[in-house]
Amino acid sequence: MLRIPCPWCGLRDQSEFRYGGPAERQRPVRPDAASNEEWSAYLFYRDNPRGEYRERWWHEYGCRQWFAVTRDTVTHEFAPGGPVTGGRAE
Amino acid sequence: MSQPFRLREGGRIDRSRRLDFRFNGRRLEGHAGDTLASALLANGVHFVARSFKYHRPRGIYTAGEEEPSALVEVGTGDRRTPSCRATQVPLTAGLTARSQLGWPYPGFDLGRVFDFTHRLWPAGFYNKTFKWPGWNVWEPMIRRLAGLGHAPRERDPDAYEQVNLHCDLLVCGAGPAGLAAAQVAARAGLRVVLAEQDGDFGGTLNQDAIELGGMPSGQWVAQVTQELGATPGVVLLPATTVCGVYDHLVTTLLQRGENTSWRECLWIVRPRRILLATGAIEQGLVFPGNDRPGIMLASAVRQYLNRYAVACGRRVVIATNNDSAYQTALDCHRAGIEVAAIVDSRSEVREELRGALQDAGVPVHPGSRIGATRGGRRVRAVRIEGADGSSRGGVATDLLAVSGGWAPRVHLLCHARGRLHYDPAQRCFVAARVPYGFVLAGSVSGMAGLQTALVSGVRAARQACRELGFAPPSTELPIATRSALEPGVTGEAVFAASRQRQWIDLAHDVTLHDAELAVREGFDAVEHFKRFTTSGMAVDQGKTGNLNAFSALAAITGRAIEAIGTTTYRPPYVPMTLGALASAGYGERFAPRRYLPAHVVHRHLGAHFQDYGGWQRPECYPREGESPRASIERECLAVRNGVGVFDNSPIGKIEVRGPDAAEFLHRVYLNDVHGLETGCIRYGPILNENGVIIDDGVFARLAPDHFLVNTTSGGLGRILGLFEELQQCDWPDLQVVTDDVTSKWANFTVAGPLARDLLAPLIRGLDLAPQALPHMRLGTGFLGDLPVRVLRVSFSGEASYEINLPADAAAQALGLLLDKGEPLGVTPYGIEALMLLRLEKGYLHFGTDTDGMTTPDDVGWGEIARRKPADFLGKRSLARPGNLDPGRRQLVGIVPLAADGPLTPGAHLLLGDSRRLPQPTDGWITSAAWSPTLRRHIGLALVRAGRSHLGEVVTAFDLGRRQAARLVAPTFFDPQNERLRT
Amino acid sequence: MRGYSGFSLLRHAVGGHRGWPRAWRQVDRPAARYDVVIVGAGGHGLATAYYLACRHGPLRVAVLEKGWLGGGNSGRNTQICRSNYFHPESGAFYERSLVLYENLSDELNFNLMFSPRGMVELAHSTEELEIFRRWANAMRMNGIDSEVLDREQLRRQVPGLNLDGRFPIVGGFAQRRAGLSRHDAVVWAYARAASAAGVDIVQDCEVTGFDISGARIQAVQSNRGRVSADRFALCVAGHSSHLAAMAGLRLPIESIALQAMVTEPVKPLLDTIVTSAVVHVYLSQSDRGEIVIGGGADAFNSYAQRGVLPVMRETARAAVELMPCLGRMRIMRQWAGVCDMAPDVSPIVGLTPVENLYLSTGWGTGGFKAIPAGGETLAWTIANSRPHELLRPFQLDRFASGCLIDEGAASGVAH
């Protein structure tokens, strides 16, 4: 079971959280001007690294805050997290 | 005589309490404090099991959890439990146990035919044969032959518990190192959990005759246990096995209950540090005929002797490659058991050992090994031979105690991604990388003397204290004044050729021949070797045999054992009861039931309840003698012709507030939000970025900066998560907050031509006249004294008022509506009637008429989406070729051609009058029912380019049945929406 | 392939089994040049090599494996073979695979213990049963066998099933031809047959990079030297993103861990494969007698071949809820595999933007059942430089065009 460091609540059990995928996703500034390929790159293509990964978690059954945190996808070790910066551009 | 092999004195059993038990129908007797194994051995019973593959007689090999052979079925009826280790079953009065394999009975087993024909069944034989005439012919027979014991057929009557615990230090193992460590940590003020798989603390101190500070070791154990028990914050867990270590040190422990209301208890411990003091497991020896009953681990023989006062035989031969088994010889000699010989594979034996045994008159054979054994149900004789194979004579014996060295119990370390390396000096795998959070003490990090174990316990505990910021206290340790012999230099594993089979895995009947065959066929990678021979894959997971299996692989391939590596140890360390893992989280507790705030009223009305998205909701309200079907139609007609009340409380309700609330929702919804005036309501779908509809519902503008959003009851969590993610991560610049108010508000829908007649006299402060409160408007008022919000929205096609009111007044309000509505014939209606009403109206039901591929255009929202200039979630995806494909499925109405034929939801459709299958489907029926209002069968369907095929005939296929139907516009009732305008 | 039979077993028994040849040739170093280099000696890589060598030869083919062959998901799955798919594209592909499985023991001369014992999906509400009916009918439209079962049929076919649990079972739907096949045997049989057809299988050979010039790969670099070839294929479930990145490709793939566990073996208890999407568990019994239990995947990206505790406990709860008689049985072993998930949970097999690089990924949690058809069609695709007919819908371009093949979505689940 993961013990996840919520930046606001401290270490909590995984069951309190929901996973949210990569922390920063660059949404095309003007989607209607983006090509199908560019749009699909934003929608579907992922770095999926083996090792450190910056990702979103939601402390759903806690403070209900979304945060970004770096986790090693092999060892599952977390580095301290913080707010998500730079999401979908609008 | 009862218990002929019980010694007259000694042991830790309670001789005053005699316990009767049955084994294979035989009535036997043991004492309190016995295990089933020790009680059987006290009665001279060695042959307790048949082996897995060859059905050979097998005995009790160990005294603990590592037992590979003595698996028995314990209990009867629904408490019958297969594959219990006799060595771990505490003896209780009336216990019933039996051997698992053996037909017609364990003593005479026709399955022995596999033993006599063993040459036909080498490892992996099943890969090469049973192909003709077909595996399906052979499989039933093979399945019946495989498997150990029978699973119960009934529900487990016993209960299981679960405890969650946080602590600073989890000490695994309460042997000398673990006890010393726990004492230091407890004195330093750490919250300590001390877990020991045995029922008694002490570990090897219970196995051997040991003195600490001149006193029997038991006194020291009692003293430390007492001190720990009296220290606040310390949790002592005897009879508790640490089963698995998961991410971030979260650990599962399984405790066996005795005289408790539960059978087993699952502890989930979240320690800050784990101190492993799990000791080591003695390994078996590989030699010809090494599997007979009466062949046991030397440490087990010692444990039965010292702890249970049981002599495992009258005349023992000891075979070893290290010093520790000499202790068995000395202890046996002291207990009056004749030691016939010590066979030591090492050519050099320490002088003092030789001397001690010479004094006892025990012949020692250095540089020799067991060349063969004899005996059917019990070993009777062994032949000793020299390293060169020369015979050194036969010895009659009824007990062969073996020791092949020791392997540290490093399994938990591996669960946490610790790495092992082979230590050639100790001939075992030890920790190469200790994972974060672990400290090691005692022989888990390599065999050492008792004194060293005690010191390492203290040292490890002090390290944990310092890491956690506690000041380690000073401690004085007892001096071991009498201890057991340590292994010393362990000899190489020797594999000699022989006509007799040599077993490297007793539990799975794997022989040295199998190992050679595996290498011959190229299965020499350690994992291939394991999977090909199945060595180490049995219920014991190779605890006493892995080292020998790897040594055999090394010897056969001529590689160094370091180069071979080990297989991966995975949790659980010992098999865990499924019921304990589930710990009562099944049955009614599998998922909580959510009840409507007015549940009592519905129950009083005789509602049939069904689970919808976790909510217990009324399906229908049958009257006495009325079928559900009739009830649903009656309820439906009541709404069409009079007035009905529906409890819609589970509908998702989210409040969205802030100066940017409108902009926020405008970016979310497919349709326009900015243009919605205060007091107005709009219906719209929400898409994901892939352009698929993920929810639908109405949203209402309560104030310029305040919206109420309805979601489907099942979609609430998803939409709420989306809103909070958008607001916090993606559009943090927008000033908006969202709040889930679902459970704060009850929601009753009052619908039908008489709805206003019912409500008008009851609602104060709000004009319900159609011009004052038309369709898709809202207002506030009072129902009696209750403040209510009234939304004119309709999912039935009738004039309909959704009354939102505080949830705690729900029962009262529903009672009032039903009471006051009685003269009007008000009818409560359930979900089934609602589904009929919306189907007649052609309103789509999210999740029924849509699926995870449905886009706005598929259900008629394409034009609105295209007309909205601003961006919204998923908009861009709607312009991809796949979304613009004219062959996409579209939602249309469908009616059967023959007047009497009902349509089946789930039937597939082909355009035209089609007969032949297979063919690519043209769509399927999503909803269908008999309409009591229209008195005909109607349905909705997703059909390829359906809107361009309206009026055409299609063929419906349902599990071999064929039916003609016609596609029509999806609105069957009141297409002009006249009823909504009243 | 020949050589394995009851008769040969008898003959070798006389000789003490000393005469058995190696199942596959030992190749310590790859040659400097091949026609096709396949990275990854799992089921898919080996099957691709086998079909390339046997059907499209003569070709010099090498399979490079970082560890031991079959060490990835091929050896850590729950052995289920089925073709109960909704979409015609999936149905056609997986049906081909099932048909190949039905005759594979003969073709490869290796008993794969293919056991078509049927698979039952349980419906816990009338709504779910309607969706299953839609699904069962979709299979019939695709020409694949399917049945809808009522409670009585389920009671007879799955003794011990708890029909009246927290979520009562109202019915189910079955594919009779679905079954189990011994996972290691499938890998070993393809390895043996491929090796016999001349394929070099090199174990302990880790690819460390690609030599790329222009839009073509010239060679792979490995810890056992440089290997050049005309064509390259990646069949590396659990490592796809990593290896594709070496070739300069980014993929629509996320890797997650899926865990499973087995109980101690018992006498026959369960004769079919039983699954429930509501209770979230699938159960079967191996020929050895172990009850094999699978559940949901861990809900976050992971390359750890181990499962998390909450999912394990949820799965245990579900197993006991569905079959209460399992309560006293004990879990002997748990493990996990790393699954490469595409956004629509359908595979991506075929050509890539790199001219001579072919890809087989996105098998999600069900790559095992796809091994024969995956190998057969990828081999054809490599040999012909264009997607095999069955693979045409499963190309990378579907993510830009929006023509996804979403099986989960078809069962009414929006995600």
Please explain how this structure is put together.
- Chain A is mainly beta.
- Chain A is built from one helix and five strands; from the N terminus they run βββαββ.
- In chain A, a hairpin with a 3-residue loop joins strand 1 and strand 2.
- The longest helix of chain A has 8 residues, at 36-43.
- The radius of gyration of chain A is 15 Å and the shape is elongated.
- The mean pLDDT of chain A is 91.
- With 982 residues, chain B is of the alpha+beta class.
- Chain B is 23% helix and 29% strand.
- In chain B, strands 10, 11, 14, 15, 16, 17 and 30 form a seven-stranded mixed β-sheet that branches. In chain B, strands 45-46-47-48-44-38-49 form a seven-stranded mixed β-sheet, sandwiched between helices. A six-stranded antiparallel β-sheet of chain B has the order 51-54-55-50-53-52, covered by helices on one side.
- Chain B is elongated and about 115 Å long.
- The N and C termini of chain B lie far apart (98 Å).
- Chain C is of the alpha/beta class and 415 residues long.
- Chain C contains eleven helices and 18 strands.
- Chain C has helices spanning 6-14, 43-55, 88-108, 126-141, 151-157, 183-196, 240-246, 309-322, 371-384, 398-401, 407-410; strands spanning 33-39, 61-64, 80-81, 119-123, 147-150, 171-175, 179-180, 200-202, 207-213, 216-222, 225-234, 254-263, 273-276, 281-285, 291-301, 330-341, 348-351, 357-361.
- In chain C, strands 1, 2, 8, 9, 10, 11, 17 and 18 form an eight-stranded mixed β-sheet that branches.
- The longest helix of chain C is centred in the N-terminal third of the chain and has 21 residues, at 88-108.
- The chains are: A mainly beta (90), B alpha+beta (982), C alpha/beta (415).
- Chains in contact: A-B, A-C, B-C.
- Strand 34 (576-577) of chain B pairs antiparallel with strand 16 of chain C.
Brief sketch in words of this structure:
The complex is a heterotrimer of chains A (90), B (982) and C (415). Chain A has 90 residues and is mainly beta.
Strand and helix map with partners:
The complex is a heterotrimer of chains A (90), B (982) and C (415).
Chain A: E1 3-6, E2 10-13, E3 18-22, H1 36-43, E4 52-58, E5 66-72
Antiparallel strand pairs in A: 1-2, 3-4, 4-5
Chain B: E1 14-23, E2 26-32, H1 36-42, E3 49-50, E4 57-58, E5 71-74, E6 81-85, E7 95-99, E8 104-105, E9 108-109, H2 113-116, H3 125-128, H4 135-145, E10 160-172, H5 176-187, E11 192-195, H6 204-207, E12 211-212, E13 215-216, H7 217-229, E14 234-237, E15 240-245, E16 251-256, E17 264-276, E18 280-282, E19 295-297, H8 298-306, E20 315-320, H9 324-334, E21 338-344, H10 351-359, E22 364-365, E23 368-374, E24 381-386, E25 391-396, E26 399-403, E27 406-408, H11 411-415, E28 419-423, E29 428-433, E30 438-440, H12 450-467, E31 480-482, E32 503-505, E33 510-511, H13 512-520, H14 526-533, H15 546-557, H16 561-564, E34 576-577, H17 578-582, E35 594-595, H18 599-604, E36 608-612, E37 615-620, H19 628-641, E38 644-647, E39 652-657, H20 661-668, E40 681-687, E41 693-703, E42 706-711, H21 716-730, E43 737-740, E44 745-751, H22 755-759, E45 763-764, E46 778-783, E47 786-791, E48 800-806, H23 810-821, E49 827-828, H24 831-841, H25 862-867, H26 881-884, E50 889-896, E51 908-911, E52 923-931, E53 936-944, E54 953-958, ...
Chain C: H1 6-14, E1 33-39, H2 43-55, E2 61-64, E3 80-81, H3 88-108, E4 119-123, H4 126-141, E5 147-150, H5 151-157, E6 171-175, E7 179-180, H6 183-196, E8 200-202, E9 207-213, E10 216-222, E11 225-234, H7 240-246, E12 254-263, E13 273-276, E14 281-285, E15 291-301, H8 309-322, E16 330-341, E17 348-351, E18 357-361, H9 371-384, H10 398-401, H11 407-410
Parallel strand pairs in C: 1-2, 1-11, 2-8, 4-13, 11-18
Antiparallel strand pairs in C: 3-7, 4-6, 5-6, 9-10, 10-11, 12-15, 12-16, 13-14, 14-15, 17-18
Helix pairs in contact in C: 2-6, 2-9, 3-9
